[in-house]
Amino acid sequence: MFGEGIPDELHSDYEKPVRSESLPWWVIVDSGGRLKGILHTCRRFEYCRDVVLLISENTPADYVDHIKERNYNYIIAGEKKVDLKAALQILDERMGIKKILTDTGRILGNLLLNLGLVNEISLLIHPLIVGESCYPMFSDIKGNRSLKLKKSEQFINGCIWAVYSI
């Protein structure tokens, strides 16, 4: 991702960036503190206003100190892991965030679907059958979900982009 490694954190990384309010927030779930030491790389991403961290009451104290020292917005929701429903409610109340776009894999995507927090799915379908080594994207979904195709587009490379409402 960084070629020569993770760039050093600079003093300017401790300050909230001043960017257009039209840019989205980058909301990251990190109750375990796995991003300690690399959060500054996210904050430098010019296409977001800044980073907001979702953490839990069990998040390591040294990580909480780390994000406080660097002036990150954060929300504590949930005891052991982040309570996504509560966190999204707080994002709305505190920051006016009403719409969430996720670019996610199976774990977060399945959690959001199971909690009933998803109203639209955007899929990129590739012309390839993977077989035995497939990634079961929706394997943790409880029950079936009916989808309604909202739009689709075919690309020159054979991929199809399909957007469904739930």
What does this structure look like?
- 13% of the residues are buried.
- Helices cover 21% and strands 19% of the residues.
- It has 166 residues and is an alpha/beta fold.
- It has two domains: 1-101, Dihydrofolate Reductase, subunit A (3-Layer(aba) Sandwich); 104-166, 3-Layer(aba) Sandwich (Dihydrofolate Reductase, subunit A).
- Strand 1, helix 1 and strand 2 form a beta-alpha-beta unit.
What's the name of the CATH homologous superfamily of the largest domain?
Dihydrofolate Reductase, subunit A
Radius of gyration: 18 Å
Q: Order of strands across the biggest sheet?
A: 1-2-3
At the first level of CATH, what is the class of the largest domain? Alpha Beta
- Average residue-wise pLDDT: 92
The profile of the biggest β sheet is: 3 strands, parallel
What percentage of the residues does DSSP assign to strands (E)? 15-25%
**Looking at the chains present, what oligomeric state does this protein adopt?**
single chain
Give the SSE string: EHEHEHHEEE
Shape descriptor reads globular
Search tags:
alpha/beta; Dihydrofolate Reductase, subunit A; 4 helices; 166 residues; 3-stranded parallel β-sheet; 3-stranded antiparallel β-sheet; 6 strands
